[in-house]
Amino acid sequence: MILNDTIVALATPSGAGAIAVIRLSGPEAITICSTFFKSIHNKDLSKQKTHTIHLGHIIENNKTLDEVLVSIFKNPHSYTGENVIEISCHGSIFIQQEIIQLFLRNGCRMANAGEFTLRAFLNGKLDLSQAEAVADLIASDNEASHQIAMQQMRGGFSSEIAKLREELLNFASLIELELDFAEEDVEFADRTQFKDLVNRIVFVLKRLIDSFAVGNVIKNGIPVAIVGEPNVGKSTLLNALLNEERAIVSEIAGTTRDTIEDEIVIGGIGFRFIDTAGIRETVDVVESIGIKKTFEKIEQAQVVVYLFDAEQFKTDSEKFIVEIEKIKNKYPLKPLVVIANKVDKLSNTEVETLKATINNLHLLSAKTGVGVEELKEKLLGFVNTGALRNNETIVTNSRHYDALQKAFEEVTKVKYGLESSLSGDLLAIDIRQALYHFGEITGEITSDDLLGNIFANFCIGK
Ligand SMILES: Nc1nc2c(ncn2[C@@H]2O[C@H](COP(=O)(O)OP(=O)(O)OP(=O)(O)O)[C@@H](O)[C@H]2O)c(=O)[nH]1
Ligand SMILES: [Mg+2]
After folding, report:
1. Do the Cβ atoms of 358 and 321 come closer than 8 Å?
2. What's the pLDDT score for residue 271?
3. What are the Cα distances from residue 415, in Å, to 24, 205, 380, 408?
4. Which helix (H) or strand (E) element contains residue 6?
5. DSSP string spanning 349-418?
């Protein structure tokens, strides 16, 4: 990685817009820009203070490319910690490209994906988990994922880890000091206090690890599979939930043959609905592949919505009750919502009878929309948003989850070591291992490969 040159990239999305922002970072950013920037007040850009904005023109060989605003951020007071220039130009693709090409011809290099944030990390502006949160923040499309990314970017998660790491480090030093005085048989590290600390760390780690279940779901949306026999109205329900004609609906049984997925946000949380091929015995090859896929989708789903046709239920109740039991037995741990659809076709007394037959039955008319809002409420009830509401730290990143689990394993070893009065030198090894995994999260311990992987997922210009 070469990181002492000056990089340039478009910071705004590619395409035409009202304005576009081109960003330069590196030792020569201000010098390179000032060569081609003519301020309307004839100011020399390289002599201006940090955090100032200047109006002028980008000119090459007497040809004016655009009228622009240039912002200056001087090392170390910038996002990357280097000299940074941000040029707000008019948002034509032609202008953007002309200006970027001009800088590329004159000493800049095109930035790699995430390179601005990578430089911010390497210059100590952000720790690794904060840098990762920048990408999450850009990707967040609902309130919950935004809140978590924002908290992580501000350092909530890192400071929790850093605190544990520091306390553990203190004890590690004391234990290692004891090793230097091995012949004298002294104990610098109070074992009772140490046990308390280790228990506390185990507790915090456990909470963070458990939070990943919620975090992961919030980041990726909660998958909800809509299943049932052909023609019961699954696709109609998907369309009603999405409020658009996403899936084809017809009175022909076996209309949906492949799975159809789409997301909506309910109460700030993303839900991904999966409309599936109706389950039945069939000789149709395509349909049977679709049905096989339905079962795979049920496996992957967090919540299963089972639909049956309320009108058909009047004559065929046994069949549906057996079906419901089958799903319950096959997936005993998955939350299941049983829905009687097409209740618009039933009389009031028929509705009452139906309600009495099945516990916790949800009544719906996907066609008229009756019961759709109540279904959304019900689904939201399955999400444990307690941690979110209490503003607790939630882990959303699988890399962090991995490191936390490894740290947990090591700290648990320390815990048992202490209980069985393990010798100091062996304890010290486990403590060092745990510290190593804490360091992986915040980036005290990294490899080029790891950094490459993380920042490759960023967009160019960030
Ligand atoms: N009256 C009434 N008809 C409905 C309702 N929901 C769906 N239908 C009708 O039932 C038929 C089947 O609807 P679909 O949504 O295609 O059913 P599906 O479960 O997706 O069927 P497959 O894809 O074949 O498995 C269509 O003619 C819909 O208009 C409802 O709530 N009331
Ligand atoms: Mg369908």
Report:
1. yes
2. 92
3. 50, 13, 39, 10
4. strand 6-10
5. HHHHHHHHHSTTPEE-BTTTTBTHHHHHHHHHHTS--HHHHTT------HHHHHHHHHHHHHHHHHHHHH
Overall residue count recorded for the chain in this entry: 462
Domains of the chain as residue ranges with CATH: 6-125 (3.30.1360.120), 131-216+393-455 (1.20.120.430), 225-384 (3.40.50.300)
State the Cα–Cα distance between residues 199 and 401, nearest whole angstrom. 19
Asked if pLDDT for residue 1 goes beyond 70, the answer is no
Residue with CA at minimum distance from ligand 1 atom 32: 342
Judge if the beta carbon of residue 23 lies within 6 A of ligand 1.
no
Which position has the token pair 């009756």?
370
What is the pLDDT at residue 387?
60
| Cα angle: 396, vertex 130, 157; to 5 degrees | 55
How close is the Cα of 347 to the center of ligand 1, in Å?
19
The span from the CA of 306 to the CA of 175, in Å, is: 58
Q: Is 340 in the pocket of ligand 1 (CB under 6 A)?
A: no
Q: Are 307 and 227 in contact (CB under 8 A)?
A: yes
Q: What is the pTM of this model?
A: 0.74
pLDDT number for residue 361: 94
Give the tens place of pLDDT for each residue, 141-190: 888 889 889 989 998 888 888 888 898 998 888 888 888 887 777 777 78
By DSSP bridging, strand 108-110 and strand 6-10 are parallel
Dihedral Cα 30, 33, 36, 38, nearest 10 deg:
-60
